[in-house]
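question for whoever is on the cluster today: can someone run the full assembly for these? two chains, 713 residues total. i dont have access anymore since they changed the login thing
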Amino acid sequence: MIIELLATPLGHTVAALVAILAFLGLNGLVMVYMERKVCGFIQLRPGPFEVGPRGLLQPVADALKLVGKQLVTPLGADALLFWLAPFISFAPVAICFLPIPFGPIATGMEMNLGLLLILAFSGLNALSLVLAGWGSNNKYGLLGAARAVAQSVAYEVPLLLSVLAIAFQAGSLNLSTIVEGQKGILSWNLFVQPLAFVIYFISATAETNRAPFDLPEAESELTAGFHTEYSGMGFGIFFLAEYSYMIVVCAVATALFLGGYDGPFAPGIWWFLAKVFFLVLILMFFRWTFPRVRFDQLLNICWKWLIPLGLANLVATALVMKLVK
Amino acid sequence: MPHDAMSKLVGDYYTTHFTPDPTSEGDTLILNLGPQHPSTHGVLRVVVEMDGEYIRRSEPVLGYIHRMHEKMGEVKTYLQYLPNMGRVDYLHALAWNWAYVGAVEKLMGIKVPPRAEYIRTITCELNRISSHLLWWGAYILDLGGITPIFYAFADRERIMDILQRVTGARLTYCYYRFGGVSADIDDDFIKETREFLQHFKTRLPIYHGLVTGNVILRGRCEDIGVLPVEMCRRYGATGPVLRGSGVAYDTRRFEPYSVYDQLEFDVPVGKNGDAMDRYDVRMAEMVQSVRIIEQALDALPAGPHVSPDLPERFIPEKGEVYFAVEGARGKIGVYILSDGTAKPYRLKLRSPSFSNLHVFAELAQGTLLADAISIMGSLDLVIPEIDR
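^ ran it for u. tokens below:
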């Protein structure tokens, strides 16, 4: 009965969503631990090691603390928008995971517009930051929201351009098809399209609001930016969403550039996860080593460098594709 | 404002008086940076009027940590007041120790034995390195780089361990006494200091490699907050802020006190007076402090660490005195007016941060908020010193 139900497209999707939510919850814990250990390693300190063996229970303690805190709605805040924002931030992430091919058969939902779906839903993140900043009736929040908008206008375009080049090359927006096109390490798009990878990865860092592009929260300027007024799980959900978006952008990078689940010996899903977490590690290295760029510097990088380079890359790809065919 | 309670929030003088100029164009936003704000490193409050991300005007609001140090000077005897000095600027406490002790010595004509002068020089310069190290970490923190402060603290911790051996304190030192220092340094102190200097010389290139050359840091510092010499003169800015603008004014060199005229050291200066120049000056000053300490350790004479013929009670004649030393933030001055009793009639503390801070309002005009934070960090403010 259950197997029959899972075999139907709807049943399959629902099961995939449940699995994704479970994965996201677990992933939040893993990433918190990972981030703390990585930053401890970079900063010459041990990181968490008291709670549980090797500090493994520290993320659980963090989560319990967040859950236990009082939820405060600030005076004069728009309560509906204020509490809607964390969910608008988190809900699209789950959908972003659906078309990602974790393994040869481990795809939540095969769809031909998979890439488009991910880009569309991850774009909603900027909306949640705006709502959070606007709804919380806080000047720092408002400034953070304004930055989020300017930033998303800047990074979305080069992100799309770099992804388009890959889509041109593979002739498909289906992530599984793109992955199938990269068999063997030399045919990975990382080596075929290195420029697109660099553009994608820089834009993706901006998309996840990670340092050095963490302008909407910029704690030394805007205290905490858009989530200044959030307490307890309000903040916790933003936090979870940020870590989940990190996985999304790294998973897309893996599928587009690193050959997805391509790899010898072990089953594909392990290769996929290994590549994803390797990219996540690089994102974490960024955060703990670089100072923050200024808001107009990010716009300059995106508009003056990444977009022209992305366009040139796109045109070159299109020309080569035309000539080869 | 939608809520009744909102209308009852009155605010203070600045809330009611620092309002957008009705004649200026466009909507502006009044923003309070502080008294609790991550980038002010203390309880400084800066009210800014912002046009989008740009700052139209700003005004520092002081007094949140005022402890009446000057008034306390008038009600305590000369010796009782001494421990206060470690609390004025907790990052370079020994310079304040020295300024006050030096002023009283000058007023009473107390001779300081040479060994004590060298010990003062060594410890004060060690303290200067630790102060600059903390500034370095905190400044990169202001710019969003979180890691360097941990490296700075690791080195600073070693300086604090060294100073703890002789002073007995780790932060708010009260080590200098009228006519000397409270305890002599031993061979272990000298050995540890030499070891630290060797270690520190290997660390500075690492810092420069990791942070100074970083393209993002340069983008955040170069041509930001360009401070002309003329503006420094108007506000009385001193220390690395003034030297960053290209004026080689260092109290240790131009009004030599103690043994600084016998030691070789350079006065690093900047060219343009931007935040990067102030950064470079402080980094270079740490190297010079290392040079000074090494020379002082080599030349350390034997003898008593405190003057043997001190008066039983410190009651100076009628008169006034001004004594200045070079602190990590600039010229520290102590003025004492004595009426011949056991307590000063008037005691005035000239704190460098106070003058340096007021450059900010003019520098921040028309800059982005992020740049203003960078400028404020590059001034190296210690808030308790501003309020005193």
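summary bc i know u wont read the tokens: Residues 9-42 of chain A form the longest helix (34 residues). Chain A touches chain B at residues 39, 42-45, 75-76, 139-140, 142-143, 146-147, 211-212, 214, 218-223, 287-297 (CB under 8 Å).
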